[in-house]
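Milestone M4 deliverable, item 7.
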Amino acid sequence: MTYANETLADGSAWGRPDDSTSFYTATLAPVFTVNADYFGRPQIKPYVSYMTSSWDGYSWSNTSKGNETRFGIEAEIWF
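Output delivered:
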């Protein structure tokens, strides 16, 4: 879980209604290891992350505004 607060000297210069914005994120990311020995790899890491901002107009990406939930899978392989 993460909390951040961004304060701007002049909020209107960035098109914000005020000069302070709070961000909250929560991520769930379990790790599954295919081989459990000392050099156990590969690891598969599915995740879900929820992000929100105190400013409703905040854009996490080009296609979304406000709150956003992201899903994904990462893999780690090394020798």
